[in-house]
Amino acid sequence: MVIVMGPDATQGDIEAIVEIIGTAGGDAFVSRGVSRTIIGLVGDVEQFGALNLKGMRGVAEVMRVTAPYKLVSRDNHPERSTVRVGGVPIGPGLVTLIAGPCAVETPQQTLDAALMAKAAGATLLRGGAYKPRTSPYAFQGLGEAGLRILADVREQTGLPIVTEVVDAHDVELVASYADMLQIGTRNAQNFALLQAVGGIGKPVMLKRGMNATIEEWLMAAEYIAQRGNLDIVLCERGIRTFETATRNTLDVSAVPVAQRLSHLPVIIDPSHSGGRRDLVLPLTRAAIAVGADGVIIDVHPQPELALCDGPQALVHSDLEELSEVMRALPPLLGKTATGDALATA
Protein backbone atom coordinates (compact mmCIF):
# COMPACT_ATOMS: atom_id res chain seq x y z
CA MET A 1 0.00 0.00 0.00
CA VAL A 2 1.18 3.51 -0.82
CA ILE A 3 0.09 6.88 0.58
CA VAL A 4 0.57 9.94 -1.63
CA MET A 5 0.79 13.15 0.38
CA GLY A 6 -0.68 16.37 -0.91
CA PRO A 7 1.54 19.34 -1.83
CA ASP A 8 0.53 21.17 1.35
CA ALA A 9 1.26 18.26 3.70
CA THR A 10 3.43 19.22 6.66
CA GLN A 11 6.13 17.25 8.41
CA GLY A 12 3.68 16.83 11.27
CA ASP A 13 1.14 15.25 8.91
CA ILE A 14 3.76 12.77 7.72
CA GLU A 15 4.88 11.92 11.24
CA ALA A 16 1.27 11.31 12.28
CA ILE A 17 0.89 8.70 9.55
CA VAL A 18 4.17 7.02 10.42
CA GLU A 19 3.05 6.85 14.06
CA ILE A 20 -0.39 5.37 13.36
CA ILE A 21 1.11 2.74 11.04
CA GLY A 22 3.59 1.84 13.76
CA THR A 23 0.81 1.37 16.32
CA ALA A 24 -0.89 -0.99 13.83
CA GLY A 25 2.24 -3.14 13.73
CA GLY A 26 3.46 -1.94 10.33
CA ASP A 27 6.38 0.00 8.93
CA ALA A 28 6.15 3.26 6.98
CA PHE A 29 8.93 4.35 4.62
CA VAL A 30 8.90 7.99 3.60
CA SER A 31 10.27 8.90 0.17
CA ARG A 32 10.52 12.52 -0.94
CA GLY A 33 10.60 13.41 -4.61
CA VAL A 34 10.86 16.79 -6.29
CA SER A 35 7.13 17.47 -6.27
CA ARG A 36 5.59 15.17 -3.68
CA THR A 37 6.10 12.79 -0.79
CA ILE A 38 5.13 9.13 -0.91
CA ILE A 39 4.85 6.80 2.07
CA GLY A 40 5.23 3.09 1.41
CA LEU A 41 3.53 0.78 3.93
CA VAL A 42 4.69 -2.69 4.88
CA GLY A 43 2.49 -4.92 7.03
CA ASP A 44 -1.11 -6.13 7.26
CA VAL A 45 -2.87 -4.32 4.41
CA GLU A 46 -6.32 -5.30 5.69
CA GLN A 47 -5.55 -3.75 9.06
CA PHE A 48 -4.29 -0.58 7.37
CA GLY A 49 -7.59 -0.38 5.52
CA ALA A 50 -9.43 -0.01 8.84
CA LEU A 51 -7.39 3.07 9.83
CA ASN A 52 -9.18 5.54 7.53
CA LEU A 53 -5.84 6.78 6.21
CA LYS A 54 -7.57 8.65 3.37
CA GLY A 55 -9.21 10.90 5.93
CA MET A 56 -5.98 11.92 7.64
CA ARG A 57 -4.69 15.44 7.21
CA GLY A 58 -2.32 15.98 4.28
CA VAL A 59 -3.21 12.74 2.48
CA ALA A 60 -4.03 13.13 -1.21
CA GLU A 61 -4.46 9.47 -2.14
CA VAL A 62 -4.18 5.95 -0.73
CA MET A 63 -3.73 3.07 -3.13
CA ARG A 64 -2.76 -0.54 -3.33
CA VAL A 65 0.15 -1.22 -5.68
CA THR A 66 0.41 -4.72 -7.08
CA ALA A 67 3.94 -4.35 -8.46
CA PRO A 68 6.64 -5.53 -6.03
CA TYR A 69 8.54 -2.26 -6.65
CA LYS A 70 5.86 -0.03 -5.15
CA LEU A 71 7.59 3.35 -4.90
CA VAL A 72 9.23 3.39 -8.32
CA SER A 73 6.20 1.89 -10.10
CA ARG A 74 3.98 3.91 -12.42
CA ASP A 75 1.02 2.40 -10.59
CA ASN A 76 1.34 5.11 -7.96
CA HIS A 77 3.09 7.72 -10.12
CA PRO A 78 1.54 7.70 -13.62
CA GLU A 79 3.55 10.67 -14.88
CA ARG A 80 7.22 10.08 -15.61
CA SER A 81 9.64 11.85 -13.28
CA THR A 82 12.38 14.39 -13.94
CA VAL A 83 15.48 14.20 -11.74
CA ARG A 84 17.59 17.33 -11.30
CA VAL A 85 21.33 17.03 -10.74
CA GLY A 86 22.94 20.30 -9.74
CA GLY A 87 20.15 22.09 -11.61
CA VAL A 88 20.47 19.89 -14.72
CA PRO A 89 17.28 17.96 -15.57
CA ILE A 90 17.13 14.34 -16.69
CA GLY A 91 13.71 13.15 -17.74
CA PRO A 92 10.94 13.05 -20.36
CA GLY A 93 11.18 15.40 -23.30
CA LEU A 94 14.95 15.72 -22.92
CA VAL A 95 18.13 13.93 -23.95
CA THR A 96 20.86 14.61 -21.40
CA LEU A 97 24.51 14.02 -22.31
CA ILE A 98 26.73 12.94 -19.41
CA ALA A 99 30.37 12.59 -20.43
CA GLY A 100 33.91 12.55 -19.11
CA PRO A 101 36.76 10.21 -18.29
CA CYS A 102 35.96 6.72 -17.08
CA ALA A 103 38.65 7.22 -14.43
CA VAL A 104 40.15 10.36 -12.94
CA GLU A 105 43.91 10.12 -13.45
CA THR A 106 45.37 13.64 -13.21
CA PRO A 107 43.99 17.18 -12.83
CA GLN A 108 44.95 18.09 -16.40
CA GLN A 109 43.56 14.89 -17.94
CA THR A 110 40.26 15.38 -16.11
CA LEU A 111 39.99 19.07 -17.08
CA ASP A 112 40.83 18.34 -20.71
CA ALA A 113 38.21 15.56 -20.85
CA ALA A 114 35.62 17.80 -19.19
CA LEU A 115 36.22 20.60 -21.70
CA MET A 116 35.93 18.11 -24.56
CA ALA A 117 32.67 16.80 -23.10
CA LYS A 118 31.25 20.29 -22.59
CA ALA A 119 32.11 21.31 -26.14
CA ALA A 120 30.13 18.29 -27.40
CA GLY A 121 27.06 19.37 -25.43
CA ALA A 122 27.50 17.55 -22.13
CA THR A 123 25.77 19.16 -19.16
CA LEU A 124 27.03 16.68 -16.54
CA LEU A 125 30.57 15.41 -15.94
CA ARG A 126 31.18 11.74 -15.27
CA GLY A 127 34.46 10.59 -13.74
CA GLY A 128 35.48 7.69 -11.53
CA ALA A 129 37.50 8.25 -8.35
CA TYR A 130 36.72 4.73 -7.11
CA LYS A 131 36.96 1.97 -9.71
CA PRO A 132 35.73 -1.57 -8.93
CA ARG A 133 37.70 -3.65 -11.41
CA THR A 134 37.51 -7.29 -12.43
CA SER A 135 41.24 -7.70 -11.75
CA PRO A 136 42.66 -6.78 -8.33
CA TYR A 137 45.82 -5.66 -10.16
CA ALA A 138 44.03 -3.09 -12.34
CA PHE A 139 43.90 0.62 -11.50
CA GLN A 140 41.41 1.06 -8.65
CA GLY A 141 41.09 4.84 -8.75
CA LEU A 142 42.57 7.75 -6.79
CA GLY A 143 39.95 7.75 -4.03
CA GLU A 144 39.41 11.06 -2.25
CA ALA A 145 42.23 12.67 -4.23
CA GLY A 146 40.19 11.93 -7.36
CA LEU A 147 37.09 13.46 -5.77
CA ARG A 148 39.04 16.65 -5.06
CA ILE A 149 40.14 16.79 -8.70
CA LEU A 150 36.52 16.42 -9.83
CA ALA A 151 35.43 19.20 -7.49
CA ASP A 152 38.14 21.50 -8.87
CA VAL A 153 37.12 20.71 -12.45
CA ARG A 154 33.47 21.38 -11.60
CA GLU A 155 34.56 24.81 -10.33
CA GLN A 156 36.38 25.51 -13.59
CA THR A 157 33.75 24.19 -16.01
CA GLY A 158 30.43 24.54 -14.19
CA LEU A 159 29.60 20.89 -14.88
CA PRO A 160 27.96 19.02 -11.96
CA ILE A 161 29.67 15.73 -11.04
CA VAL A 162 28.44 12.14 -11.44
CA THR A 163 30.77 9.67 -9.74
CA GLU A 164 30.64 6.11 -8.48
CA VAL A 165 30.55 4.95 -4.88
CA VAL A 166 31.50 1.33 -4.22
CA ASP A 167 31.28 0.92 -0.45
CA ALA A 168 28.55 1.86 2.02
CA HIS A 169 31.23 3.28 4.33
CA ASP A 170 32.26 5.79 1.65
CA VAL A 171 28.80 7.14 0.83
CA GLU A 172 29.00 10.18 3.09
CA LEU A 173 32.48 11.09 1.82
CA VAL A 174 31.58 10.73 -1.87
CA ALA A 175 28.31 12.61 -1.37
CA SER A 176 30.23 15.53 0.14
CA TYR A 177 31.88 16.05 -3.28
CA ALA A 178 29.43 14.64 -5.83
CA ASP A 179 26.20 16.02 -7.27
CA MET A 180 25.02 12.52 -8.21
CA LEU A 181 26.09 9.13 -6.88
CA GLN A 182 26.52 6.27 -9.33
CA ILE A 183 25.95 2.62 -8.46
CA GLY A 184 27.81 0.43 -10.92
CA THR A 185 26.78 -2.90 -12.37
CA ARG A 186 28.86 -4.89 -9.87
CA ASN A 187 27.04 -3.27 -6.95
CA ALA A 188 23.56 -3.24 -8.42
CA GLN A 189 22.42 -5.77 -5.80
CA ASN A 190 24.66 -4.63 -2.96
CA PHE A 191 21.64 -3.93 -0.77
CA ALA A 192 23.53 -2.28 2.08
CA LEU A 193 25.05 0.17 -0.40
CA LEU A 194 21.68 0.82 -2.06
CA GLN A 195 20.12 1.62 1.29
CA ALA A 196 23.03 3.87 2.22
CA VAL A 197 22.76 6.00 -0.93
CA GLY A 198 18.99 6.08 -0.46
CA GLY A 199 19.42 7.86 2.84
CA ILE A 200 22.08 10.41 1.88
CA GLY A 201 19.88 12.92 0.04
CA LYS A 202 21.66 13.03 -3.35
CA PRO A 203 20.38 11.89 -6.77
CA VAL A 204 21.45 8.36 -7.69
CA MET A 205 22.26 6.74 -11.04
CA LEU A 206 21.62 3.01 -10.83
CA LYS A 207 23.22 0.90 -13.52
CA ARG A 208 21.58 -2.39 -14.40
CA GLY A 209 23.37 -5.43 -13.03
CA MET A 210 25.15 -7.33 -15.77
CA ASN A 211 23.03 -10.42 -15.03
CA ALA A 212 19.90 -8.66 -13.76
CA THR A 213 16.40 -8.94 -15.13
CA ILE A 214 14.44 -5.72 -15.49
CA GLU A 215 12.39 -6.61 -12.42
CA GLU A 216 15.59 -7.15 -10.39
CA TRP A 217 16.84 -3.77 -11.64
CA LEU A 218 13.65 -2.05 -10.51
CA MET A 219 13.70 -3.87 -7.18
CA ALA A 220 17.23 -2.53 -6.64
CA ALA A 221 15.85 0.96 -7.29
CA GLU A 222 13.14 0.24 -4.74
CA TYR A 223 15.82 -0.30 -2.07
CA ILE A 224 16.99 3.26 -2.72
CA ALA A 225 13.49 4.70 -2.84
CA GLN A 226 12.42 2.94 0.34
CA ARG A 227 15.08 4.86 2.26
CA GLY A 228 13.57 8.17 1.24
CA ASN A 229 15.09 8.98 -2.16
CA LEU A 230 13.01 9.04 -5.34
CA ASP A 231 15.63 10.97 -7.34
CA ILE A 232 16.88 7.88 -9.18
CA VAL A 233 17.99 7.55 -12.80
CA LEU A 234 18.13 4.04 -14.28
CA CYS A 235 21.03 3.25 -16.63
CA GLU A 236 21.03 0.36 -19.10
CA ARG A 237 24.73 -0.48 -19.68
CA GLY A 238 24.55 -3.80 -21.45
CA ILE A 239 23.96 -7.26 -20.04
CA ARG A 240 26.03 -10.43 -20.12
CA THR A 241 25.02 -12.87 -22.87
CA PHE A 242 26.72 -15.57 -24.91
CA GLU A 243 27.86 -12.95 -27.47
CA THR A 244 31.55 -12.01 -27.44
CA ALA A 245 31.65 -9.57 -30.37
CA THR A 246 30.91 -6.70 -28.01
CA ARG A 247 31.90 -6.11 -24.41
CA ASN A 248 28.27 -6.48 -23.32
CA THR A 249 24.95 -6.81 -25.13
CA LEU A 250 23.06 -3.51 -25.13
CA ASP A 251 19.40 -4.25 -24.37
CA VAL A 252 17.71 -1.30 -26.07
CA SER A 253 14.31 -2.88 -25.39
CA ALA A 254 14.95 -2.29 -21.67
CA VAL A 255 14.39 1.44 -22.17
CA PRO A 256 10.71 1.39 -23.23
CA VAL A 257 9.99 -1.54 -20.91
CA ALA A 258 11.45 0.22 -17.86
CA GLN A 259 9.75 3.48 -18.82
CA ARG A 260 6.41 1.68 -19.01
CA LEU A 261 6.86 -0.03 -15.64
CA SER A 262 8.54 2.79 -13.72
CA HIS A 263 8.28 6.57 -13.56
CA LEU A 264 12.07 6.93 -13.25
CA PRO A 265 14.20 8.36 -16.10
CA VAL A 266 16.12 5.77 -18.12
CA ILE A 267 19.45 6.42 -19.85
CA ILE A 268 21.93 4.27 -21.79
CA ASP A 269 25.68 3.75 -21.47
CA PRO A 270 26.90 3.09 -25.04
CA SER A 271 30.56 3.08 -23.96
CA HIS A 272 30.49 0.16 -21.53
CA SER A 273 27.99 -1.82 -23.58
CA GLY A 274 29.89 -1.73 -26.88
CA GLY A 275 33.35 -1.51 -25.36
CA ARG A 276 34.81 -0.07 -28.58
CA ARG A 277 35.11 3.51 -29.79
CA ASP A 278 33.61 2.71 -33.21
CA LEU A 279 30.41 1.40 -31.59
CA VAL A 280 29.72 4.32 -29.25
CA LEU A 281 28.15 6.70 -31.77
CA PRO A 282 25.92 4.07 -33.46
CA LEU A 283 24.70 2.94 -30.03
CA THR A 284 24.12 6.57 -29.03
CA ARG A 285 21.90 7.02 -32.07
CA ALA A 286 20.04 3.85 -31.12
CA ALA A 287 19.62 5.12 -27.55
CA ILE A 288 18.06 8.38 -28.71
CA ALA A 289 15.88 6.59 -31.28
CA VAL A 290 14.47 4.17 -28.69
CA GLY A 291 13.51 7.04 -26.38
CA ALA A 292 16.28 7.09 -23.78
CA ASP A 293 16.33 10.15 -21.54
CA GLY A 294 20.09 10.49 -21.91
CA VAL A 295 23.43 8.82 -22.50
CA ILE A 296 26.61 8.53 -20.43
CA ILE A 297 29.80 8.43 -22.51
CA ASP A 298 33.53 7.98 -21.90
CA VAL A 299 35.83 10.76 -23.13
CA HIS A 300 39.63 10.92 -22.87
CA PRO A 301 42.19 13.34 -24.36
CA GLN A 302 44.72 10.51 -24.86
CA PRO A 303 42.90 7.17 -24.72
CA GLU A 304 46.02 5.24 -25.68
CA LEU A 305 47.44 6.27 -22.28
CA ALA A 306 44.23 5.76 -20.29
CA LEU A 307 44.44 3.72 -17.10
CA CYS A 308 40.91 2.41 -17.58
CA ASP A 309 38.81 1.57 -20.67
CA GLY A 310 40.83 3.57 -23.19
CA PRO A 311 39.57 1.58 -26.23
CA GLN A 312 36.02 2.85 -25.73
CA ALA A 313 36.78 6.52 -24.97
CA LEU A 314 35.85 9.12 -27.59
CA VAL A 315 38.43 11.60 -28.92
CA HIS A 316 38.07 15.05 -30.49
CA SER A 317 37.03 13.85 -33.95
CA ASP A 318 34.35 11.59 -32.47
CA LEU A 319 33.03 14.41 -30.32
CA GLU A 320 32.39 16.62 -33.32
CA GLU A 321 30.08 13.93 -34.65
CA LEU A 322 28.55 13.37 -31.22
CA SER A 323 27.77 17.09 -31.02
CA GLU A 324 25.97 16.88 -34.35
CA VAL A 325 24.03 13.80 -33.19
CA MET A 326 22.90 15.68 -30.08
CA ARG A 327 21.75 18.64 -32.18
CA ALA A 328 19.99 16.71 -34.93
CA LEU A 329 18.41 13.55 -33.50
CA PRO A 330 16.44 14.60 -30.37
CA PRO A 331 14.13 17.01 -32.29
CA LEU A 332 13.20 14.18 -34.67
CA LEU A 333 11.83 12.32 -31.63
CA GLY A 334 10.06 15.39 -30.22
CA LYS A 335 12.80 15.90 -27.65
CA THR A 336 15.36 18.56 -26.83
CA ALA A 337 19.01 18.14 -25.94
CA THR A 338 19.34 19.29 -22.34
CA GLY A 339 22.19 21.63 -23.24
CA ASP A 340 19.95 23.41 -25.74
CA ALA A 341 17.09 23.54 -23.23
CA LEU A 342 19.31 25.13 -20.57
CA ALA A 343 20.77 27.60 -23.06
CA THR A 344 17.31 28.92 -23.98
CA ALA A 345 15.82 28.81 -20.46
Automatic annotation (TrEMBL):
Enzyme Commission no: 2.5.1.54
Chain ranges of the DAHP synthetase I/KDSA domain: 87-327
Keywords, comma-separated and alphabetical: Transferase
Cited InterPro entries: Aldolase_TIM (IPR013785), Class-I_DAHP_synthase (IPR052899), DAHP1/KDSA (IPR006218), DAHP_snth_FXD (IPR041071), DAHP_syn_2 (IPR006268)
Matching Gene3D superfamilies: Aldolase class I, Phospho-2-dehydro-3-deoxyheptonate aldolase, domain 1
A molecular function GO annotation: 3-deoxy-7-phosphoheptulonate synthase activity
Keyword Transferase on entry: yes
Protein name: 3-deoxy-7-phosphoheptulonate synthase
Coiled coil: none
Taxonomic source organism: Streptosporangium jomthongense
